[in-house]
Amino acid sequence: MSKNSTIIQLSLLICLSMYGCTSSKELVLDAVWEQDQFESRKFRKIAVFGLTDSTRANIRFEENAVRNFKSKGIRAIAGHEVYNIALEGPIDPDHLKRYLFSLGFDGILTTALIDNISTDNEDISDDELQQYTEGIYKFGQYFQIRYEESQKPSHDIYGVLEANFYYIMDYNEFDGSGLVWISHYQIDPEYRATFEVSEYSKRIVNSLFEDQVILRK
Predict the structure, then answer these.
(1) Which domain of life is it from (predicted)?
(2) Predicted TM-score of the model (pTM)
């Protein structure tokens, strides 16, 4: 793949010109990042995790995304059916990744509501997104961070919908496994208080195919 900045610019251009990413006034694509060395591939089985502070919304998102994947011939399973941290308790981050791989998963889609990572709270720059990815490269660590944040008491209304995709190559953490794709969407302030992440599962799943992260079987 080309350099990160070029990927982000091209992804935005293609999305805007061909797929109508600005058609929803509630949600506007802000930035896309793809890992340089990752090559588009077909996946055996994908786990889908909603990581917001609403269990109901998470389950709805996971189930909707699974249906969207299956409609494209991709095997997918809702994350809460595989590992429900709220019921089963925390798990060592490294063990979680190995556990999922042992069940045959080689792809993981997550979604979360977060604060804007931009220093000026406006559009996210290429450098900001690149630096941000360095702290969430491993899936297990990211999962634990997002879960802990979702359990904190009251928080200001979030302004960004984040979708991440992780590739699991094998049991090791130093083999190319890790974060390969991020999309950040700005949520219109008017809709933040009542925003339902589950309503955007189709859009997120479609983006993985449009950006050629996942190839159809």
Answers:
(1) Bacteria
(2) 0.82
